[in-house]
Every structure is written in C-alpha cells, then in structure tokens.
Amino acid sequence: MTLKDKKYIIVGGGLAGISVAIQLIRAQAKVVLFDKNENHSSVVAAGIINPIVFRRMTKSWRVDEFLPYLKTFYAKLEEETQSNFFHELPMRRLFSSIQEREFWLQKQLKESFQPFLNFVTEDDMNYSVSKNEFGSGRVRDAHFVDVKTFISKGKEWISQRAELVHEAFEYSELTTTTYKNTVFDEIIFCEGFENNNNPWFKSLPLDQTKGQTLTIKSNELPTDVSLNRKCFVLPLEKNLFKIGSTYEWHNPTTTITDEAKTEILGHLSYLTDEKVEPVFQEAGIRPTTRDRRPLIGTHPNHRNFHIFNGLGAKGYMTCPLLSFEFVQYLAQVGSLDKEVDIKRYFTKL
C-alpha cells in the first residue's frame, strides 16, 4: 500500500503533530489529527532558530540541512494560509568571557562557519546599546517563528484538508486497527511531555523539562536585534520583549513562579541595568532527551504504532526536515537518521 491508500491517526496537535500531518497530507495520505487544545510546549516556545550553540561555539546539529528545508517549509505554509509567521532575526551574542570571544574569532575563519558568523568588527567590540564587557558578534541566518500564529494557521490548514478532532485521546479505546469507531492503518504519537503516560512508548527516556519565559516592557533595549547572553531577548512590538528561559528538570507543572522571574531578571542584568517592567509570565514543558536527539520510529512489537517526539528546545529548526524524513520512512522510500531512531532504546520498550 502507498501512503495515499492509508489512513493515519496522529495524536497531538503541537509542532510535531502539525508538521507530520502536513507532510502526510501533502503525500496524499488520509489523516485524523487528535488535538485536545492543551498545548504546553509548542505555543509557549520562543520559536528562535539559532544556527550556533554559543556555549561550545559549535554549529547546531545538521544545521546545514535543516535551515534550507525549514525556509521552504514555513514559506510554503505562509503562502497557503495567507499568513506571516516566519521572520529573519538579527542576533547579537554578547561574549561572556575572553575565551568565548577567542573561540568566535577562530571559528569565523573556518569556511564551514562563515555562513553563520559575521566577522567581528570594531563596532561589534564597542557595541554600546547593552553591556558589552568582552565584545560581541553577530549571527547570520537566524530566524524566529511566531509560534501562536504557526500553530493556529497550521491547524486551520489541516482542518481544510483532513479530519481534526478536538478531544483527548483515550488509550483504552485503541486496538491495533481501530480507535472507537475509526478504522486506521497506522497511528503516530506526537504527545510531547505527555508521552510518559503512553502505554507503548512511556519507557523511552523522555524528560519533562519545564521552562519559564517573561515578557517585559523596556525603553532601553534595542528593538532591531535579539540579544543573547545568559538569556535571550526577543523583540516583539511596542517596546515589548520576551526573555528567558529557565530549565527546570523533571518538572511537569506549568505553574509560574517568582523564583523563575527573579532568575530571568538576574540573567537580563548581564545585558542592561534598566529596571524593566514585567508584563506577562508563562511556563511550558519541553519534551527533551538525554542525548539531545528526538525519539522517532516504530514500536518493535506493534509495527503500525509510531512515535515522533522529543524535539526539545530546537524543535522549530529540526522539525520540518525530520517530519519529511519520517514520512519518507513511512512510505518506505527513505530511512531514519540513526541518531533519532528509537532503535537505540529498543531494550527499554
């Protein structure tokens, strides 16, 4: 059977579920997407796409493949939904030490880094719009996704071409080929941190990592660039900025805390002494893995049960291409990257 002859159930309407649904629909498969409208990750994320890992001054995993594909993926969906959610993002890294500055200066000379690092200039060293103790560098080819618009427009696109069901999925109603009154060929679980409740995949090592962000009002922070040191500062509109975020391991709650607010504002103090005005605080739960690679593949004993999860903090960069490769795998015309394939954890299923 080809994809267009199959019906797929997708459980979860966040970034992962939406992207997989779009790829399957474009491949002419029949899709039923279950979404209970309680997303605690994809709609809370900042949606920043940064090609560089600052802490180690390395390129993000597979960035040379992910970036070209995601631009096409998001641009096509923008055109089809007549919306605007994918944006270029000028980004400036304020170096945290002399050593980090030296790492940047070395890496900017390497051909493989030149698409992503601007050469540091005297103006970068003397940048004065924020604190700049050790100098700064400008990142090339950074972007951000307006996540709430993407999620909303993605669901709208799917609902016009497939079945979108707004209800919680009940595991007890699932057999190998039916869910309630729906007969299906294959099922894909894209449940984010809630995978820990899944009877078939809950043994996979997926961590619940809470993150909190703060929206602030500032009259001094630059509105034309995203600053980064100890935290990210994402300009929104009308002198509003999203800043964050915290990492709270093994914490599945979405309660905002004063401790997190204090931590975020403390990190912001490395960039400015301005007493900013907090406007809004929110919390989300990232589905993360210990090896920082997603969990994608097929259950060893239930060959029509699949998982697409664990995208973590870089999901908006990695998901477009990984979802395409996953659908190619389902169509048996491609294979999964060994680093994401859950075969690496089969003994734990």
Q: What's the number of domains? A: 3
Q: Sheet bearing the most strands, described?
A: 7 strands, mixed
Number of helices: 7
Q: CATH superfamily of the largest domain, please?
A: FAD/NAD(P)-binding domain
Structural class: alpha/beta
Instruction: Provide the low-confidence segments as ranges.
Output: none
For the termini, the CA-CA separation is 27 Å
**β-sheet strand percentage:** 15-25%
Helix content: 10-25%
Shape: globular
Provide the residue-averaged pLDDT: 95
Tell how many strands the DSSP assignment holds.
Answer: 20
Using only C-alpha atoms, the radius of gyration works out to 21 Å
Please give the order of strands in the largest beta sheet.
8-7-15-16-17-14-18
What fold name goes in the CATH topology slot of the largest domain? Answer: FAD/NAD(P)-binding domain
What's the CATH class of the largest domain, please? Alpha Beta
CATH architecture of the largest domain: 3-Layer(bba) Sandwich
